[in-house]
Amino acid sequence: MEPDFWHKRWHEKQIGFHLSEYNERLIEHYSELNLQAGDNVFIPLSGKTKDIHFFVEKNCSVIGCELSPIAVQDFFHESELHFESNDVAFSELKLHQSNDINIYEGDFFSLNSEQLSTVNVCYDRAALVALPQEMRKAYAQKLISTLPDSVRMLLVTLEYDQELKQGPPFSVTEEEVYFLYQDHFKIQKLSTTNTGEKQPKVVPTKAKSASSIGVQMIEKTYLLHNTVPPPIKGGG
Fold first, then answer.
1. Hey, which of 48, 107, 168, 232 has its CA 20 to 30 A from 135?
2. For domain 3-226, is the CATH number 3.40.50.150?
3. Considering the entire predicted model, what is its pTM?
4. pLDDT tens-digit series, residues 116-157
5. pLDDT for res 166
6. Contact 197, 214 (CB under 8 A)
7. Burial of 226: CB neighbours in 10 Å, binned 0-12, 13-18, 19+
């Protein structure tokens, strides 16, 4: 999916994926992340999510990454936060900083492990499902290669009949989650939720009429943590 697609969506304010309140699955399952004061949380494809404030309220710092400058500016302005912006050396990224919030503006794939070296937790509510299938493997591999081995991840996905709806958000099956991550993470499914009519009605891709229909969507939440044990401290 080309960057122009997302730039257009934000420019035209086609952002039905944005939630005006904290995500329900985050509220339900954040305790599984065993958050500690001072933890650093990474939110890929962060948009202008209010979930950033959720983690700050838990005394965590947040690193976001967002392609759209509109989304980044909207986040800080709507949050009424003063922020400073600087170009990142040897990169097309720009870093926006306000106290415990740091948001990289630019391509997620431009991030490096040094920029994410302090991350303890990754929260993916809208990143994996925002990508078409041909991009999801590269995205998962980038996360795995860039984040520290000890990272804990809360992942929220959607499953539905992809023939009835054009993404994004895209349908990501449980089988695909395991395919992408099982070689590097232990995976625990925390919940399965039928979202019912909470999801917006959409135009079916194979319907003869243009009338909108509701598409049944199943939301699944996973906890991922690395199989590599932490280094043993001390000793001589």
1. 48
2. yes
3. 0.86
4. 999 999 999 999 999 999 999 999 999 999 999 999 999 999
5. 81
6. yes
7. middle
